[in-house]
Amino acid sequence: MSTGFAPARVRPSRGAAAPSRERATETFTAPAGREGSRLTRLRRRVSWPLGIYTTPVAILVLWQVTSELGWLPEKIAPAPTAIVQAGVDLWKLGELSVDLTTSLRRVGIGLAIGLTIGITTGIIAGLLRSGEYLFNGVVQIVHTIPLLAILPLMIVWFGIDELTKVLLISFGAGLPMYLNLFAAIRGVDQRLIEMARAAGVRRWRLITRVLLPGALPGFLVGLRFSLAYSVLGLVAAETINANAGIGYLINRAQTYLRIDQVYLGLVIYAILGLLADQFVRILERVLLQWRPSYEAS
Amino acid sequence: MSTTTTTSVDVRNVGRRFGDRVVLDDLSLTIGESEFVVLLGPSGCGKSTLLRLLGGLDLPDAGTVSVPKARAIVFQNDRLLPWQRVLRNVTIGLYEDGADERALAVLDEVGLKDRARAWPKTLSGGEAQRVSLARALVADPDLVLLDEPFAALDAITRLRMHDLVRDLRHRHNAAMLLVTHDVDEAIALADRILVMSDGRIGSTYDVRLDDDERDVGTAREDLRASLLGDLGLAAVH
Ligand SMILES: Nc1ncnc2c1ncn2[C@@H]1O[C@H](COP(=O)(O)OP(=O)(O)O)[C@@H](O)[C@H]1O
Ligand SMILES: [Mg+2]
Asked: Angle at Cα A27 formed by Cα A21 and Cα A33, nearest 5°?
């Protein structure tokens, strides 16, 4: 703590050292349109119309231009428009929708299982010491094994059909959820828990009003990882014996040297990842509005 | 005012140590019903340790502590739940019907009724501490423990808070123990001032001054000098 009694050593600031130079000043005034926030938003929209997609779109445009100029061989990277065309063609054949729904169903079921188990065990372990002792050891050990290395074992156990694929995705989704949720519940500010205890808050309310809301930021971090890893699990799962799905689409395209369709598959994976990210972002905006956070200008 | 018929707090021969460090040593203390006691002592002398014992957040190594069951603590930092709006922060410990109405009434007393729907992040330091005062008073406690509640506030806000606390204690008939290292705060608020030294209550002062005498006058200056002397500081004028 500063006492204010310490002898202050007065050192001339750099600006004052050169009296001949003009002293640098900064002047702040009200930003235009702070009141009419709709106008401000519009202005921001106009100056950065694409937001975080600015760079991806710029790369796409550059890619298209270089392709059309013939600088980029079609065998290495077909133009974006060619990739879109491949998608349209496959859609018309009815193949794309089958692959897409198959993959989405796998991710959906896998996520549902993985998140349910991850959230349930994470909350139990976070709240109860016995839960921690039951689950933590196993999870820590399993966590050290790379997702892809488990695949052969799962094939032996569960065969090469849907079950293995779905479980691999659940695995990818469940682990990070458990780990983040556990850490988040244990990390809730001890002083707030003490305050609640002093205020006579009973167990159930402590959980629902202090521990779980306090763990929400960590939960959302976990969700972000879960969604990303579930897509990773999907990619891995669809390399084995698939007869439908985005991974199958890519494998098939590779066999027939349809590089445009390979790119199409990758683009779909990327879009899935982006959608997942946007979803978490929206959740954060809704659920974490209480949090004092930095807003960039 | 400090004529006490019944005791609210009775602490007898309490000891508390952390490792080799003896923080409280054979400390005894009583507080009467609706008495305002200020516990004065330098940083690190064990004020918070004692207050935590009174609040039931910690247990003594020796001796007994008896306190009313209905008690509340105001901590040095507001300790508001950032994810609950002001109103829900105040009602956190209430289980009966009509919690919201009571919370709004107390928020009105601390002048924050119109901020009931605000998030804690939008409050100033003084406002946040007023909310935590409201949270403490809403359950009509028999004992309110305040641990340097205004130490982090600026001087002007602190003076306003003193007025508020004086006002509140006349409305709510609770015994209050306020812990501070600020001599002026002690004089402004106390019926009785206890100075801590060597892990026990060193000296006791009954303060029989009216509100004006607490602000200026020779009685006040004499008391201030004595307190500073007890704290081992020469009185600075
Ligand atoms: N939980 C603890 N563990 C170890 N030492 C503690 C603990 N709590 C307090 N102390 C020690 O007890 C002494 C008194 O602390 P405290 O009661 O917080 O002082 P005050 O509130 O008067 O500033 C300090 O030296 C502090 O380091
Ligand atoms: Mg303290």
From this structure: 155
Q: For residue A211, give the DSSP letter.
A: I
A194/B57 Cβ within 8 A: yes
Most B CBs within 10 Å, among A195, A203, A211, A294, to test the B interface: A195
User: pLDDT, tens digit, for every residue of A153-177?
Assistant: 888 998 888 899 999 999 999 999 9
- Give the model's pLDDT for residue B234: 63
Domain that holds residue B36: 19-79+140-230
Q: What is the ipTM of this complex?
A: 0.89
Backbone φ and ψ for A76, nearest 5 degrees, come out as: -90, -50
Query: How many helices (H) and strands (E) would you count in chain A?
Result: 13, 0
| Rounded Cα gap, residues A75 and A169, in angstroms | 32
Sheet holding B143-147, edge to edge: B71-74, B143-147, B175-180, B36-40, B192-197, B200-206
CATH of the domain at B159: 3.40.50.300
List, in sequence order, the alpha helices (H) in chain B: 47-55, 86-90, 99-109, 125-137, 155-171, 183-189, 211-215, 218-230
Residues of B in contact with A205 (CB under 8 A): 92
Instruction: Give residue for tokens 């929708």.
Output: A97
CATH class in words for A77-287: mainly alpha
Q: How far is the CA of B197 from the centre of ligand 1 (A)?
A: 14
Looking at residue B216, the DSSP 8-state letter turns out to be S
Whether A202 has its CB under 8 Å from any CB of chain B: the answer is yes
Q: How far is the CA of A6 from the centre of ligand 1 (A)?
A: 26
| Predicted local confidence at residue B3, as pLDDT | 46
B196 is a domain residue? yes
Q: For residue B17, report the distance from its CA to the centre of ligand 1, in Å.
A: 9
Q: Does residue B89 form part of some domain?
A: no
Chain Cα centroid distance, residue A168: 19
The DSSP code for B202 is E
CA distances to A54, A271, B154 from A61, rounded to whole Å, are 11, 18, 57
Token output for B11: 């602490």
Q: Which residues in chain A have Cβ-Cβ distances shorter than 8 Å to B81?
A: 192, 209-210, 213-214
Does any domain span residue B4? Answer: no
Tell me if B164 is assigned to some domain. Answer: yes
Domain total in chain B: 1
The tokens describing B75, both together, are 């901590």
Window A:209-248, CB contacts with B under 8 Å: 209-210, 213-214, 216
Q: How deeply is A179 buried, as exposed, middle or buried, from its count of CB atoms within 10 A (0-12, 13-18, 19+)? A: buried
Q: Token pair 């005894």 is at which residue?
A: B28
Average pLDDT over residues A186-201: 95
**What are the tens digits of pLDDT across the range A51-80?**
878 898 999 999 999 999 988 888 888 999
